[in-house]
Design goal:
Blueprint lengths: L2 E3 L5 E3 L8 H9 L36 E2 L2 E2 L8 H7 L2 E11 L38 E2 L13 H10 L14 E8 L9 H13 L4 E4 L20 E4 L4 E5 L3 E2 L5 E2 L9
Parallel strand pairs: 5-7, 5-8, 6-7, 8-10
Antiparallel strand pairs: 1-2, 3-4, 9-10, 11-12
Length: 269
């Protein structure tokens, strides 16, 4: 016996012998007439909650039924992010390509999580030999240059959902508190982009270390990379050719509320 506790809830704290089976010990002790209850002495940890001021506004991460913009949430209607954070908040080894309108890599809640191309030097040449000059933090496939800055905030918003720096007392928090966001711009300032640029961005992402590719895109009436829209495409898929997990919008609506088709061609699945 390690210790005894006397109080409203009195109990004994026991230590098992080396190699002794916990389940067998519980069963043996429970059979004793003087024992009311037996359980392991579980170890608890503080719940990983970020100190970011806008975290409480994100139903998707934690929905306790809180009021957001005058609307009451639905308790439990979230992705159980807090439970995941109890396991880890560090995804720093993971590169997530965001194929979108670009990313504001100077945003105070994103700048620390922007991917850096370790093989490239900003010197006017293609240092790493990947076919892109000075691509130190991604690529702009619209302009064909090395500045994937976001001009209308959509890609920045998406990147924040994925990987806004967590627990830094700034803004909100992403699903991954520490992650590498690879900005790849394929949509222009009016949210338009081409199949060719999107396909090229997918290739770039896979060739430069991305393991996850996010495309929150859509096209009215047809799949962007396929002439025949699938009846019910998945929202994510493992691409064995590129070795990446690809995620895209489950359903996006246009300005009139009409559904837009999803993004990725069947040949990329």
């Amino acid at each position: 016996m390690l210790s005894a506790h006397q109080g409203k809830t009195s109990f004994l704290r026991l230590k098992l012998k080396p190699g002794q089976d916990v389940g067998a010990a519980i069963q043996s002790l429970t059979a004793q007439p003087w024992v009311v209850h037996v359980q392991p002495n579980y170890i608890y940890h503080a719940t990983a909650l970020p100190n970011d001021p806008h975290f409480s506004e994100y139903w998707g991460l934690q929905n306790t039924g809180q009021l957001v913009n005058g609307v009451t949430g639905t308790t439990g209607a979230d992705i159980s992010a807090v439970r995941a954070w109890d396991e880890t908040t560090n995804c720093s080894a993971m590169v997530v390509a965001v194929i979108d309108t670009g990313v504001d890599y100077n945003h105070p809640d994103l700048t620390a999580n922007i991917w850096a191309n370790a093989g490239e030097v900003l010197d006017g040449t293609d240092t790493d030999g990947n076919g892109f000059i000075d691509d130190v933090r991604g690529w702009d496939f619209v302009q064909g240059d090395n500045d994937p800055m976001d001009f209308n905030e959509h890609g920045t918003h998406v990147s924040g959902t994925i990987g806004a720096v967590g627990n830094n007392a700034v803004g909100g928090t992403g699903i991954c508190w520490n992650v590498q966001i690879m900005p790849l711009r394929v949509l222009n300032s009016v949210d338009s982009g081409t199949t060719a640029d999107i396909a090229a961005a997918v290739d770039y992402a896979a060739a430069n270390g991305a393991r996850v590719i996010n495309m929150s895109l859509g096209a009215p009436g047809t799949n962007i990379l396929s002439s025949v829209p699938p009846a019910r495409p998945p929202v994510c898929s493992w691409n064995f050719d590129t070795g990446t997990l690809q995620l895209w919008t489950a359903q996006t609506l246009d300005n009139l509320g009409n559904p837009l088709a999803t993004t990725v061609a069947e040949r990329f699945l």
